UniProtKB/TrEMBL annotation, chains A, B:
Coiled coil: none annotated. This is fructokinase. It catalyses: D-fructose + ATP = D-fructose 6-phosphate + ADP + H(+). It comes from Symbiobacterium terraclitae. The keyword Mitochondrion does not apply. SUPFAM superfamilies: Actin-like ATPase domain. CDD domains: ASKHA_NBD_ROK_BsFRK-like. It holds the Pfam family ROK. PROSITE patterns: ROK. Its cofactor is Mg(2+). Its EC number is 2.7.1.4. Keywords: Magnesium, Metal-binding, Transferase, Zinc.
Amino acid sequence: MALFGGIEAGGTKFVCAVGTGPDDVRAVTRFPTTTPAETIGRVIEFFRSQPEPMTAIGIGAFGPTDPDPASPTYGTITSTPKPGWQNTPLRKLVADALGVPVAFDTDVNAAALGEYTWGAARGIDTFIYLTVGTGIGGGAMVEGRMLHGLVHPEMGHIRVPHDWAVDPFPGFCPYHGDCLEGLAAGPALERRWGTRAETLPPDHPAWPLEAEYLAQALVSYILILSPKRIVIGGGVMHQPALFPLVRTRVKELLAGYVQSPAILEGIDTYIVPPALGDRAGVLGAIALAQGQR
Amino acid sequence: MALFGGIEAGGTKFVCAVGTGPDDVRAVTRFPTTTPAETIGRVIEFFRSQPEPMTAIGIGAFGPTDPDPASPTYGTITSTPKPGWQNTPLRKLVADALGVPVAFDTDVNAAALGEYTWGAARGIDTFIYLTVGTGIGGGAMVEGRMLHGLVHPEMGHIRVPHDWAVDPFPGFCPYHGDCLEGLAAGPALERRWGTRAETLPPDHPAWPLEAEYLAQALVSYILILSPKRIVIGGGVMHQPALFPLVRTRVKELLAGYVQSPAILEGIDTYIVPPALGDRAGVLGAIALAQGQR
């Protein structure tokens, strides 16, 4: 019987799992992302130690990456600012060591695929998966296919209106300063308010401001990509006050322009958390492995 | 031998053509968009007067529309602000009168399909076609399929940074004020500078400002949709100074973040005018008809 491996290769931590889906996860491990040699060494050790061999493995990786199967550098982490990881051929190193087929995509595309296969986007052919955590990134399925395009989307780096009088925080993105990620990812909250996002109470002014930035971005996503649903995961979204604030503001900003019942009447099921929770990434990597079998 | 009809149904004028492609256009007519009854009457009269019957007809229409073939209102112009045109079943009226299959999509998706079939996007599976004229709209092909999603994109209505000190013009979009269309479509130039866009000389300050707004929007499109090329048509783009200004500013704004040779080294072939010129729309409608044959 076929058995699959999933690797959620994050910039902060790696998660590896073995199984066939959310109800059949046979082993899982987590460890911090250190050097490529040490980190990939632990990945290989984990899969070698399993009682049964993998049929295939999937990797959802932090980036920027090269996710094009036709490219000679397919599965490489390319121009990341993360020290030591530039031009790391992650997919090739895993495939060569374990001798099995390895599929590769961005971390957010993998999570999107997980939610499409088993989660909040089942049966929906055009949707976005956004994660709001240490960084902000988005994956998308469009008309039934994972979106890659020229390289892959970098939805977290779009510009959103920034009223300096209301929010003097300059943003922390090393490339763009006050892009969405620079203003609204976890580290932005921590630096702006002087405390970690998870310690901010639900009635703190941090949350309406966070909702404003996220809603402005979602409106751009909706107008450009016309998704049928938006799934938002990541640590910052663990604050329960945030989803209602974002939904309300998206409707206000669209001002009735997109005349779809999904938005006008069904916003609570249009902007949703991931059904797989924080397992979306690693389960999506397993789904990726299954697709390439 | 199969013969096709194309209808570019614009908010200002309709263009109808008969043929099989850009080198075989056998008849063409243009007339202003007046009432639905009069305008659609002229469409039907034109096709009835042809010596040969059409095998199929394609319509690329102004909107918002319902372009979903599975919907009971497929091919209807829905919530347009254009007087008299709300909920006009354009596709059905043409199909019933002429008794041939009629395919329907947005005007910008039709133009995109034209450029994909015969023009500047041949062989490119993920790209955007943008028109900058009386309004601003975008169509897209993603991984080989026309993007529709929830309804269809409304890329012209995204928000772009608006520095009121530099540009006190408030925008003219009735829904959003200073969205991209409100700041950068033809009527915005006319109202801001007091003269029609085509009369503004190439060294007029109108053009760097126009390039700034368009470049800001293109950067959002690139980060969200990752197109392999962007084709920009429409009357405002007839100013030759505009393309170089837009290309330069897009590279500056991306700041090297999207590390693709297509952008870093090939921006002149990445952001391009339509190869079919102002015929992209009506030829795209013929391509639409051929796809549905």
